[in-house]
Amino acid sequence: xxxxxxxxxxxxxxxxxxxxxxxxxxxxxxxxxxxxxxxxxxxxxxxxxxxxxxxxxxxxxxxxxxxxxxxxxxxxxxxxxxxxxxxxxxxxxxxxxxxxxxxxxxxxxxxxxxxxxxxxxxxxxxxxxxxxxxxxxxxxxxxxxxxxxxxxxxxxxxxxxxxxxxxxxxxxxxxxxxxxxxxxxxxxxxxxxxxxxxxxxxxxxxxxxxxxxxxxxxxxxxxxxxxxxxxxxxxxxxxxxxxxxxxxxxxxxxxxxxxxxxxxxxxxxxxxxxxxxxxxxxxxxxxxxxxxxxxxxxxxxxxxxxxxxxxxxxxxxxxxxxxxxxxxxxxxxxxxxxxxxxxxxxxxxxxxxxxxxxxxxxxxxxxxxxxxxxxxxxxxxxxxxxxxxxxxxxxxxxxxxxxxxxxxxxxxxxxxxxxxxxxxxxxxxxxxxxx
Length: 435
Ligand SMILES: CC(C)(COP(=O)(O)OP(=O)(O)OC[C@H]1O[C@@H](n2cnc3c(N)ncnc32)[C@H](O)[C@@H]1OP(=O)(O)O)[C@@H](O)C(=O)NCCC(=O)NCCSC(=O)CC(=O)O
Prior knowledge:
The chain is of the alpha+beta class. Helix content is 42%, strand content 18%. The chain has 15 helices and 13 strands. The strands form 3 sheets. It has a 9-stranded mixed beta sheet, sandwiched between helices. The longest helix is centred in the first third of the chain and has 24 residues, at 3-26. It is globular. The structure holds malonyl-coenzyme A. Malonyl-coenzyme A is lined by residues 72-73, 76-77, 168-169, 208-209, 212, 216, 258, 272-274, 276, 339-343, 370, 400-402.
């Protein structure tokens, strides 16, 4: 063989392997939801509204107006009699200065119970997990919550971990978007765990915006495993269709709509402004305008364009701007972030949804309160507990988060849903929906 021939063969081999490597790198693997688990705290953490009120009153730190205000909000909140309070608040009042250990305890309870149940029911060995993604907005200890999981479950040394904080209630859907980017080009298993730390962030002042937070947020966590391993397809519940994120924080009012800050007396809390409802509406309009072309059938796009055009031609610009496409034409089921009764009401109105569309959001708020980033998974569990999801159905998860952000995740069911043994609604679904 001549030198020229040898060089030719070498170059050809190099070229072919580069092309193969490129194809392999660019190959997009479908990402699937193998399973998920939502935390159901022990029954001794369950709180009636009266008990919630009492836990605040016994601290002897709130003035009369603040206590009356909290009573009013509890009654109007849409929360029921069975939400869960954090261990910090359930301990004797003289122990309230002990914060960090109870925050760790709260985190461990949510994280360990959901991850144990999930690994067990999906039959995934801890060693198979390639990525661990944890999000908790208001508690970011060191070592991180993802390290806490590694330490407890012994994932492999090559596992890549990520711990997010400050991402607000959209962190659950955001983590799905993030993990999908990790899994798309390389088969793997991402464990996502989302939680919130209620106890250590309890607000002890009299500022109404911060008291609203105390009244509506409750304990909850969710863990899920996403995989891009094609062999897992027969076991997977749903396939991810798309994710879509929008950030509206360039606008000052959107940035400050829900924000952690000091009150006038230096007490730290998360203030929920009354403007949040308007901000959520504006952000939602922008968000769905980016989502619509990817999900709506052409017929609905045409119908929408026709309605807008008709209003313009009639000289009614306001009516034109209030038109929204019918998203129920794109999705059979909607898990909308149940951030508060007023948020659900205003979204329902803006999207022109019939009452039943947001039933899972209202019922989840009633049963579990605002559990922050895990809420949409409790809603998914509601659909499953009711056996409503059928193979081929499309599910839309939409969550808002501080910042102000909106994040959508769209799934397609790979099988009919059924109630898992650890479904958090298992003991109460027969009582829902409540009016
Ligand atoms: C707080 C509510 C349950 C109150 O119910 P209603 O609206 O039916 O009651 P209402 O209008 O009569 O209000 C009762 C009293 O509360 C006051 N009030 C209402 N909202 C307030 C707020 N944000 N700050 C301070 N005060 C508030 C009203 O002025 C009124 O006081 P007065 O009687 O003196 O006039 C509701 O407004 C609600 O769900 N709000 C949305 C909560 C929210 O922001 N959720 C998003 C969380 S953030 C999130 O989920 C994302 C994230 O964290 O990342």
